[in-house]
Structure prediction request, 340 residues.
Amino acid sequence: MPEEKLDWPAIRDAARRLEQGELVAFPTETVYGLGADAENPAAVANIYAAKGRPSNHPVIVHLAPEADLSYWAQSVSSDAQKLIGAFWPGPLTLILKRAAHIPDTVSGGQDSIGLRCPSHPVAQALLRTFKDGKGGVAAPSANKFGHVSPTTAEHVRNEFGNDANSLLTCILDGGQSDVGIESTIVDMSRGHAVLLRPGHISAAQIAEVIGSVPALPDQGAPRASGTLEAHYAPRTPVVLVDGEHLLAVVQKLITRGRSVAMMQHAADAIPPVAANMRLPNTPGDYAHDLYAALRAMDEVHADVIIVQTPPADAAWSGVNDRLRRAAHDSLGVLQQLSQD
Prediction:
């Protein structure tokens, strides 16, 4: 979106609202965020209240490209600087040691902080306008806690529009998010890189920059946004089924009188389901369409959404992470629906 096409009156109004402690939804290249002034504990508390989010679950602070990281973090290691140089602005969140004067409401009471610089032009314009680019906007995804993240302004309106108690006062529309799933999260707060959440930026890309593959999470890892076992879920139960058994499982549910919505990326045959959606068979395009597809299938009001399991390749790790959490009880749901 060229700068001349930005809605500057709306952006300035949103920045003013943030400075007054209000909540603002805005687009990023990953998903839409529900934002508040990161240095205003009362405003950040309103994010938790609006989402129904546990107060110990950290949020990510979004910064303008010119932001002074030393204001937000105690230190930035050389490897962290390399990742910033390679991937900011972009869909990468770094966990660093939080500067002492930054309220711990953004980190769920921890001594760390999640920071990222989004690449979406509307997000960048908002961040550069808010406090003249010196502020930070705390922003998890703009949806009720645990639900499917929004990738359009309409998704945000659908999520909060019927809530009479909603604290959201403004939605900036920046079109559909390009990436479609949340940022990669890398913990750099303990002297080495740990991949806390996969995303568009892969472990292999990170390794190319810092010279080593990031470790997997351990018990000492800080809590991070979007890493609970049950997350990113529509209201309709989701079941993951591999391609070999896909049609047999769907046919069995249909014979049991169950209404099935189906999402596939490679299967050719289509059984008589309530709804069927064919997603792209490349990981980037699949991620771009995933949340919109889950929301569309949710509107069918079927008994279950059957999703063909994507490939297990590393390129699909972000997609598979989101689907695994959305379908965290696949076996239990399938057993229940398969009973007469």
Notes: The chain has a mean pLDDT of 93. The longest helix spans residues 283-298. The chain is about 30% helix and 15% strand.
